[in-house]
Amino acid sequence: MVSETPGSYCQNCLTWNTGDRETCRKCGTRLLILAGDQTWEDEPEEAEEGEDLEEHLLERITALEETLRRVETYLETVSDQLGKLERSEVMLRNGLMALVQEMEQNRQLDAHSFSERWEHLVEDNLHLIGARELFTRYRARILPIARPKSMSQLKRALLETTALLESGSLPEAAQRLGQVLPLDPKNYELIFTVASLHEAAQNFEEAEVLARRAVGLSPRHFEAWMLLAKLLQELPEHADQAIEALHQAADIRPEDPEPRMMLAELLLDQEDLQGALEAAQEAVNRRKDGETLLLLGQVHLSRGDGAQAVPALKDASAFLPGDLHVREALAEAYLLLEERAKAFAILQELLNQNPGDPQLLLLLDAEDHLQLREARDGKPATHHLLDEAEDLLDADQPEAAEALLKRVRRKGRSQRSEWLELRLAFGRDPEKQMKAALDFACSDRHPRLCFLALRLALEHLMERKREVEIARALDAFLTRHPKSSGAWEAALMRQAYRLMNGQATEQDLVEVQRLHAHPLPGLEPRARTLLGQYLLALKHHQAVLDLLDPILEREPTLVNHFQLGAALAGLGEREEARALLQAGLDADPGDLNEGQAKGVQGQIRTLLEELEAEAPRA
Predict the structure, then answer these.
(1) Does 2 score more than 80 pLDDT?
(2) Closest CA to 212 of 198, 144, 320
(3) How far is it, in rounded angstroms, from Cα 309 to Cα 303?
């Protein structure tokens, strides 16, 4: 049988490529055998033709070896440049941190505000940075398989897209590169790159359409399958398609753990715990590090298997020492095993590093693992919806949050969904929902959620100085949840309220001293501040000095300067008090918000004026 059509077979997917193509029309692989007339014969016609073929193959192999040597040289150069960049990055980071520390010591910079601002800027630019990296990595794949007629316009579009990305115009870059798609509609690398840019610009619908086109044109395109899976996994109704896309990606690169990690996370959301365990274990078998071991530990936790989770999470800790998520998961594993002492030791350490972290406090107060899961995550099918609803409530968008909570209600209620529904209703009509909030606070639900409901009610009652209702609500909560983290915070709130209304007594001081002696981990400064205010109000000035003088150098906050300066003034040390109060005007506000900080600064100025007025008489 003889084929007269010139062409060649692809050595990768065995697709027949007609004409003089240098790359496979199906998978894009550069063809190793030159295009030519292909003949099927039972016997070779002449020995010379075989010799010509062998000579041609030897030439091709020699050319490939030379190309390989050039690539190796190039990679060595790139490696050297990366090493130089890494050293420069370390020097720049160390120099920046030294500058921040020096400015903080000279009180020219608020390091905490600087850190928050820095993280905010980095977060804002993560999508742009990722898009730039991806575009740089994949644009070299576009031109080799482009149609010759579209080459000039494609090169121009690539240059303009590069310029737009450099200027931070991500949506415009995706749009500009997408304009050349009709000129080369089968260029799957171009389609994938445009889809990735749309995904980075959060234009998910367009990205999904293009990702489907890319895998349709190139079924073995690993990155396109991963992108499609990432887009589909955010849509619960398309979870089956996302799982299929991840299976395709895993088949293309059997050694890569990433598809299996994503698959494990997706199967967890679908409550396929056995499938999630198998996928997580396969990921660990391919790459054993902190990320894969943490995922395996979390799957064991979801299965209620604390005995298997602990060793996996301990191994993860060896790769990621001190990592918040690993340590938090390990504490949860100990809670599951009812080893509360070990869990509390970890949580105490984490809360000292992350004061008031809501997830850690949920874990600290949980009476059992089932209660923790229902209060923290809700039902598996509603977890992401509840996260989004809570974010919308934090952003003061109740209408959008209500729509999500209606969807949650159809899938199943949980303690977390009930709390968010109460929060939504209370925000609209506090008086009407007051009884519901107080009933929630004294219910059998998770103690931390009960405290959040109590705080919601107390803030409303305190603004209106309804003291009888405040006392009744606090007493009821403290009776129902006496050993919770909320009990400590509620007691502190009650004492702060009494002080604010001029009701502080020596008996109240004893209670504040007790709270200060046994603080909630990470909230010691809050208890110390309240104790300092009580001591000043009851004119125990020497006790204020004993309390604050040892820690002022370590915590030179605005309120510490004020309290210590006021105590010195009360003891007659006017010059020392004046110097300390003057320095306090430029001190770090610490945990105070803007309004509170201005109030304390006003008190400092008033006290300074009083000291100035007393100076002539002295």
Answers:
(1) no
(2) 198
(3) 9
In tens, the pLDDT along 557-606 reads 999 999 999 999 999 899 999 999 999 998 888 888 888 889 999 999 99
Helix (H/G/I), strand (E/B), else coil: 37 = strand
For residue 296, give Cα distances in angstroms to 23, 265, 281: 41, 10, 7
Q: Is 142 helix (H, G, I), strand (E, B) or coil?
A: coil
**What kind and span of H or E run contains 18?**
strand 16-18
Give the whole-angstrom CA distance, residue 354 versus residue 452: 19
Report which of 161, 85, 170 is spatially closest to residue 126, judged by C-alpha positions: 170
pTM of the model: 0.74
Return the closest-CA partner of residue 203 out of 166, 170, 163, 159: 170
CB 2 within 8 Å of CB 40? yes
Q: Compute the Cα dihedral for 165, 167, 168, 172 and give only its sign.
A: negative
Q: For tokens 């945990």, name the residue.
A: 591
- Indicate the SS3 state at residue 277: helix
- DSSP letters, 338-375, are T-HHHHHHHHHHHHHHSTT-HHHHHHHH-SSHHHHHHH
Scanning 167-289, the segments in alpha helix (DSSP H) are 170-178, 188-200, 204-217, 222-232, 239-252, 258-269, 273-286
Instruction: Please name the residue that has the structure tokens 């007051």.
Output: 434
Burial of 349 (0-12, 13-18, 19+ CB in 10 A): middle
CA-closest candidate to residue 536, choices 581, 575, 497, 569: 569
How is 380-427 classified by DSSP, letter by letter? GGGHHHHHHHHHHHHTT-HHHHHHHHHHHHHH---HHHHHHHHHHHHH
SS3 of residue 597 by DSSP: helix
3-class secondary structure for 489-558? HHHHHHHHHHHHCCCCCHHHHHHHHHHHHCCCCCCHHHHHHHHHHHHHHCCCHHHHHHHHHHHCCCCCEH
Residue type, 332: E
Residue 2, beta-bridge partner list = 39
| Cβ neighbours around 416 below 10 Å, total | 26
Tell me the three state secondary structure of residue 253: coil
415: nearest Cα among 382, 458, 393, 456 = 382
Percent of the chain at pLDDT > 90 equals 58
Find the DSSP H helices in 20-110. 47-105
- Of 506, 508, 439, whose CA–CA distance to 477 is shortest? 439
Distance, CA of 280 to CA of 293 (rounded, Å) = 8
N-to-C CA span, the chain = 119
Q: Distances from the Cα of 566 to the Cαs of 202, 544, 561, in angstroms? A: 54, 9, 8
pLDDT tops 50 at residue 36: no
195: pLDDT strictly greater than 80? yes
pLDDT at residue 95 greater than cutoff 80: no
Res 119: pLDDT: 60
Q: In sequence order, what are the residues at sequence separation of 6 or more whose Cβ sits closer than 8 angstroms to the Cβ of residue 29?
A: 10, 11, 12, 13, 23
Which residue type is seen at 127?
H
